């Protein structure tokens, strides 16, 4: 069971790899339709990634988007995007509206543990996170689904240039209230990350 989830809302989440292949993660589908009956073209997914990436950059007051389809698909790090939608049925046709996304990836990073620089290979990282509709619980649902899927605790993730709202989100929902800023603009919350 996902905490904070309102069963009256018809939402679902997919994960997308850099080849724009998608896999179902969560669906409160009450229509009885199978997941594979909903097909998303690569063009449709590209448009959504670009649109949400642009909105994310504006929300963070960045000059250029961190996440675009071209950057995501050119990346050799096997990043994943977790994408959340709402679905409504109009005249027996499903209409989809994107809510937000998380971009997850693994990076080779150097962190200061207080005594020396440590090299972490394939450090699990949150690279971008954006929810269009704030304060509706969507961000928490999406983040929890990602954590469950990856079987990881949020304190064992590195966060790339987290915004004030991202830090507030982590403090409020996961009690991560002591960010350790790094020279590479990543933030970690625990030295446990070095033994993960």
Automatic annotation (TrEMBL):
The keyword Transferase applies. The keyword Nucleus does not apply. One of its GO terms (molecular function) is tubulin N-acetyltransferase activity. InterPro entries: Atat, GNAT_ATAT. One of its GO terms (cellular component) is microtubule. Residues 16-193 form the N-acetyltransferase domain. Keywords: Acyltransferase, Transferase. This is N-acetyltransferase domain-containing protein. It comes from Dermatophagoides farinae.
